[in-house]
Recover the amino acids of this structure.
């Protein structure tokens, strides 16, 4: 059985996944820090910015 902090992190990750707010790779990268409770507002902002940049690059490569 997983620890309570892991259960909470899994719920948060699942909601982010359902809302398609971050890519799977971004979610995988964030999960360890989320479980550890080490994500600051700046960490979230950076993760989102990097994910948007990656998505933009992927879109540019497709066209």
């Amino acid at each position: 059985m997983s620890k309570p902090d892991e259960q909470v992190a899994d719920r948060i990750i699942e909601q982010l996944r359902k809302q398609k707010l971050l890519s799977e790779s971004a979610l995988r990268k964030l999960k360890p820090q989320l479980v550890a409770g080490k994500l600051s507002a700046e960490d979230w902002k950076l993760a989102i910015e990097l994910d948007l940049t990656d998505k933009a690059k992927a879109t540019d490569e497709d066209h």
Notes: The chain has a mean pLDDT of 92.
